[in-house]
Amino acid sequence: MSLWTSAAAVEATGGRATRAFSVDGVSIDTRTIKTGDLFVALKAARDGHDFVAQALDKGAGAALVTHIPEGVAEDAPLLIVPDVLEALEALGRAARARTQARVIAVTGSVGKTSTKEMLRVVLERQGKCHAAEASYNNHWGVPLTLARMPVETDYAVIEIGMNHPGEIAPLARMARADVAMITTVAAAHLEAFENIEGIAREKADIFQGLEPDGVAVINADLATTPILMSAARDVGARIVGFGETAGEYRLTGVRLADGATICEAEADGRALLYKISTAGRHFAMNGLGVLAAVEALGADRDIAAADLARWQPPAGRGTRERLVLDDATGAEIGLIDDAFNANPTSMAAALEVLDAAKPKGRGRRIAILGDMLELGPSEAEDHVALAKLQWMQGIDRVHCVGPLMRGLHEALEPAQQGEWMSRADQMVARVARLIHPGDIVLVKGSKGSKVSLVVDAIRKMGHPPGKDREDE
């Protein structure tokens, strides 16, 4: 069964098809386009119309455009509309309307992508599950995810993000979720809001899209939880809370092992035991929220609890790796790649993971930390405050990257104080001298700090177990 026929796409968008077509997927990128996809010519850094001919040459089944681009034949399979983004949104709304899927929308300052992937892993074992790729959670990512949803989907997981006020509500209304989940509210993107309460109100707008009799799954441990609860009550949602100190789903025990998190919880008077196959208290909490959401969706919570162990964090979000430095001696280092994003909450969680890690031999716990961006007026204080975190005390050496991290560097105890570099490329040049066999190294920072360059440099120092250098 085709994802979209020209007739269905015309009905959804009000556009004009130059000829009949059917497509099996939707793409916005010619680099990853597949045969039979509908290419959507969005205008971003480049105008997608410049790539329509290339998309058709690579096998696209049709293209969504505002006009016939130069170099494209008039009888090419095109869907012509007044505005491409608005047409993509229309396709998303139509895809949502024609499916009987149970839909969950996920947002939060920290953990929404990891939680989305946890939900994908546990729900795909209980039905046909459709979920957003990567972090497709913005004004084009949400409609694109919806437009890609097959009619026969049983469960859909939609991630919704924001950078500025007013972004979540229209996306939530598009998703029309049966269940909406907020992982947490933290000081992320604070520069666009007056305070953290403003962030909470924006996150709570996800409930604006809930279907009648919808369920709001809310982190019950937050200072801003009352704001979230109030917003859910205002739309008539049934509320399910999860947390360590409050909520119907209560986390009663967390044990961080080296590379795993063992979790104990209670719900409805019943004990729950589940395992996350990576270390992190924040993953334990996200997993608990996932179980609450699974039950709210009508899926089997016990099966989901067992299947949580199948989830692994995506690259750059706490991925744990072993790298062999010398095949003859077996010397190796551990790498925790958490270089995709950072704020005070996620930084504390990552440092707790590093603190729980067990280096080999005389190895050390090393942190290489990049700037936390978009924190607003408190950014300088937030960086300095990291020095006093409970979990920082177990770190042997801390190297810092970026102008904001200069504050942390100066606040560290002399024994912990490593090197400070203003730019990631400078740290790249030094990193091989800063890491010894047996060390476990955490690299974390906001994407804009570019500490992912440091991750790449560390990977080049060795290779995964069982893989020869010649194979790389």
From TrEMBL:
SUPFAM superfamilies: MurD-like peptide ligases, catalytic domain, MurD-like peptide ligases, peptide-binding domain, MurE/MurF N-terminal domain. Pathway: Cell wall biogenesis; peptidoglycan biosynthesis. The keyword RNA-binding does not apply. GO terms for molecular function: ATP binding; UDP-N-acetylmuramoyl-tripeptide-D-alanyl-D-alanine ligase activity. Transmembrane segments: none annotated. It is an enzyme of class 6 (ligase). Residues 106-294 form the Mur ligase central domain. GO terms for biological process: cell division; cell wall organization; peptidoglycan biosynthetic process; regulation of cell shape. Residues 23-94 form the Mur ligase N-terminal catalytic domain. Its EC number is 6.3.2.10. It catalyses: D-alanyl-D-alanine + UDP-N-acetyl-alpha-D-muramoyl-L-alanyl-gamma-D-glutamyl-meso-2,6-diaminopimelate + ATP = UDP-N-acetyl-alpha-D-muramoyl-L-alanyl-gamma-D-glutamyl-meso-2,6-diaminopimeloyl-D-alanyl-D-alanine + ADP + phosphate + H(+). Residues 333-446 form the Mur ligase C-terminal domain. Keywords: ATP-binding, Cell cycle, Cell division, Cell shape, Cell wall biogenesis/degradation, Cytoplasm, Ligase, Nucleotide-binding, Peptidoglycan synthesis. NCBIfam families: murF. Involved in cell wall formation. Catalyzes the final step in the synthesis of UDP-N-acetylmuramoyl-pentapeptide, the precursor of murein. Belongs to the MurCDEF family. MurF subfamily. This is UDP-N-acetylmuramoyl-tripeptide--D-alanyl-D-alanine ligase. It comes from Rhodalgimonas zhirmunskyi. The gene is murF.
